[in-house]
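Worked example 3. Consider a protein that binds 2-acetamido-2-deoxy-beta-D-glucopyranose.
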Amino acid sequence: MEAAAVLSVLLLCATVHTTVAVTDGLLWNGNFELGPKASDMKGSEVLKHDAIPGWTIFGFVEYIKSGQKQGDMLLVVPEGAYAVRLGNEATIEQTINVTKGMYYSITFSAARTCAQEETLNVSVAPDFGVLPMQTLYSSNGWDSYAWAFQAEYTTATIKLHNPGVEEDPACGPLIDSIAIKTLYPPKPSRVNILKNGGFEEGPYIFPNTSWGVLVPPNIEDDHSPLPAWMVESLKAVKYIDSDHFSVPQGRRAVELVAGKESAIAQVARTVVGKTYELLFAVGDASNSCEGSMVVEAFANKETLKVPYESKGKGGFKRAVLRFVATSTRTRIMFYSTFYTMRSDDFSSLCGPVVDDVKLLSVRNPRRLA
Ligand SMILES: *[C@@H]1O[C@H](CO)[C@@H](O)[C@H](O)[C@H]1NC(C)=O
Ligand SMILES: *[C@@H]1O[C@H](CO)[C@@H](O)[C@H](O)[C@H]1NC(C)=O
Ligand SMILES: *[C@@H]1O[C@H](CO)[C@@H](O)[C@H](O)[C@H]1NC(C)=O
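Given these inputs, the predicted complex is written out as structure tokens:
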């Protein structure tokens, strides 16, 4: 009796995360509201490596106050009143304690300040990702981006580097609000062969931002900020939350914002000769994204085009794609056939929402047929 009690306590302890090295949310001074002393600045330029609390900087870094002018452009900051700008080859970094082996995603907000294509190199050694910021998805010029890593050590130095070599040193991305979130690798369940089919596990979304988070392209599935899913295409997909958008199921979903250039995919384990059904929801995010939309779903060699008439006010329909597996690994993929622009703002790309993706094996295909 007593032994059983002790055992159950031990089991309970084993399942609880005993050391939580990281709290989900902003890094220390992650929104740069704490600034350098006036004596550590020359104009907007930050002069010392350690002048911004919590951060170490290298190269030409500016401390920007919201409302500051650059030429005839007014610089606006999404969170609070301050942000930083990374000049050519400039870096900001912060070292945090992490749990070795765990997966983490970083979310940050960034805006271009010049017309050129800009990129940011986000890294935690030995991993890095060069994220393109060429296309604007939100009307105020700011977008949030996600990137993920697996901790190889008990500390992680998160670096954001501008690899650009612009002629105008005042060009370079503005950065604000850098946050972290621990990712728990999802598992397939008895009711779904796919992992994370509802997209509930994913990068941190700032509670105060209403533009979602871009999950950049060319991400391998073991280091995806959207666990188990890959973004295989040229452009990002947008991760959205039910606090700011209409979401078919649960609290999170994915908006396919760049037509055929933005696809999400997952490889599922399947049994050759078995019949499967891919079930999913297609809708709109209630973000003034109006018009005739089509989501194309792919499984093995089968394709299903799901038309959806969006009034831009939310809503969804369900669809099923049935296929017979011809391999032990079947690639599931979704993309949007068309490009769509928001009706309230003709500079922002938008698109259909995909959510609640389930893959089930059909026990008795003939009876259901
Ligand atoms: C990391 O952990 C060490 C103790 O292991 C502690 O001294 C240090 O303050 C921690 N650093 C941060 C940034 O929390
Ligand atoms: C990105 O940054 C990492 C770490 O500083 C570096 O190792 C890597 O070479 C950089 N990649 C590019 C393409 O600049
Ligand atoms: C959201 O905004 C409120 C009020 O402006 C602020 O107090 C809070 O710190 C912000 N939260 C985050 C996570 O940025």
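Take a moment to read the result before moving on. Residues 96-97 surround 2-acetamido-2-deoxy-beta-D-glucopyranose (ligand 1) (CB under 6 Å). The chain has two helices and 28 strands.
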